[in-house]
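Work package 3, deliverable 3.1, input record:
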Amino acid sequence: MYNSGKIIPGIIIFLAIVLFPFWSNLGKANVKPEPKIDTPVIQQMPVEERKCIEPKEFMKAGHMQMLNDWRDSVIRDGNRVFVSSTGKHYNMSLQNECLRCHSNKKDFCDKCHNYLAVKPYCFDCHIEPKENKS
Amino acid sequence: MSMDRRDFLKIAGITGLLGAGVAAVSGKMPGILEAAVTSPNSNALKAKQWAMVIDMRKFKTQDDYKKVIHACHSIHNIPEFGNPKDEIKWIWTDKFEHTFVGQEHEHISEAVKEKPFVLLCNHCEKPACVRVCPTKATFKRNDGIVMMDYHRCIGCRFCMAACPFGARSFNYRDPRPFIKDNNPKYPTRMKGVVEKCTFCVERLDEGLMPACVEACKDTKALVFGDVGDPASEVRKVLKDNFTIRRKPELGTSPSVYYIVGGGENAG
């Protein structure tokens, strides 16, 4: 092959540059986030009742929809009480209810959201729990 | 590859069944929210049209004004910028000639002329701000309160132009660094939204009177209640006293009434 001394290193450099996004992320972004639920309020709950407002699988997939419904319900209809599918009553409030239990916003909400690169702007206004102020 | 009609129908049938199955399973998710029940708090205060009577005779010292304004501005996380250009206000004061425009005359008593009048959103029965809002961020609740949904506010400020009472403030800057003591129970606002008094819906919904009313409950300088209810305290006060409203000629029908009073001291 003519010029193989130039072509082969050239191909290698080319591949290295083209594949940069892959090797630079190797082992990094793939660490699955593990939201922590070891907050004082949750620790105080009896183990068998350590549940979210709705089943975990539903919360995982549907909490954004739920929060959206909550704020419309509270602000537009004045309804502030949520009755869950298990019949429990909750105060429909982001900062006074979700974050009462999930007071570790940085280790919980943010863990997932950073991994997924979603940036809810809610906390431009809603106040995060004190202990997590950076 | 060739396929006869029979095989084609078999595969099509199986695919169709699969699709229906997937739809049934994934359809379960939204089910929880659709079935979700929400309700008002059982002790929420209700009304046909909330209204307030401001008895200016009861405002005598600087302190009478301060405690009312402080009660509101501290629980609602109102920033203090220290300059009138950026000022955010839910409840504030102004002179007679600015409050009751056109009512002043050159022989008006000195005490009335100089007295600060307490101002807040009038929660009009026919609010101009609601008519102009392009996103329905500001709207009228069934109990007559003109409410702000900050989540929908795009900061166009049409409402500020429409409001004849100057009751709305725009966040030209990030308010957070200028809030002295956060009330962690209530959200702040952010740069780019309009805000105003909401008659404390978050308190009414929990069975409490508005913060300003509670702050002066010993003197009853502010009386709050349902004008739709003939037996209510506001109706009684309105019946027993001569009251006026701001700019009634504009036809917005404010829900805030004033007992102006005479020559009492103006702090």
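Strands of chain B lie at 37-39, 50-55, 91-94, 117-120, 138-140, 146-148, 169-170, 194-195, 222-226, 256-259.
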